[in-house]
Amino acid sequence: MIIVLEQNATKEQTDHIVEALEAKGVQVHYSKGVDKTILGLIGNKQTLLQIPVQRFAGVEKVVHVSEPFKLASRSFHPEPSRISVRGIEIGNGSPVMMAGPCSVESREQILQSAHAVKKAGGHILRGGAFKPRSSPYSFQGLGEEGLKLLAEAREETGLPIISEVMDPENLDLVAEYVDILQLGARNMQNFHLLKKIGRTNKPVMLKRGLSATIEEWLMSAEYILSEGNPNVILCERGIRTFETHTRNTLDLSAVPIIKHLSHLPIIVDPSHGTGVCRYVAPMSRAAIAAGADGLMVEIHPKPEEALSDGPQSLTLENFHGLMDDLASLQVMGFSNR
To answer: What is the pTM of this model?
Structure first.
């Protein structure tokens, strides 16, 4: 249920409404837009129906939200959310580029990659310190040492950093170093981790699960939002289908669908979405044309020697070419070269 307040509703009227609802055990989320102030109500449906909300002074109307994802819904938050990360705003209409290696492998590798991202006009450095792999025998990441190297790269280049958190036990450690927490596809429905991340105020990028529907994806975002963290970024990274030519099937229709259903920003990961480096550039262009708020691309100084995801990683030169290509299409405002 959503309460739309009258344009001239006073603070006293709003406070009275909130206090009365909370006394009934209803959770109230406040959203102030340019034209409207909205109160989103979360609670037992029968309880909500029994409260005479329309009678409160200052209430313009009451809207019943049909979507199961209340806080992620555009009905609750009509204007697009903007997530600020060290002066970079995600969701303001100017797409953001996140780039870096799949895994942090060495000091030389991550620093070389970071400087390449900066030089090409990228905005955020990505790199995995803890790596969830299909095989227990594959490279699992450098752990805290990898986080320290990412922090050093941020110090040298000024680029904010994003890295994956795999479980509730290492959340505090990862959050200590990074600017954006990445929640991977395999953890999209790790509800204990979602709730714990929701109790932080750290920006989080939530990747779509391997076989998740868009509604399931938004419901996972709802777990984070319902715990009080509004700083959620969605990431389409491909879903599993019967097609075997690519690693996954990149579902670019998710971009306009999310824009219609939700206020949360959405970025696209064409590297995991295709698994083949030659397809990354065309799918990057397509993602921005579809309205994505940014891209996440994997790069590596020597993809043939990468310890993970080499086949989908761009060389540093190819990444620079991609950035030039995107800039020439005048779809990205990369002006910090």
So the answer is: 0.87
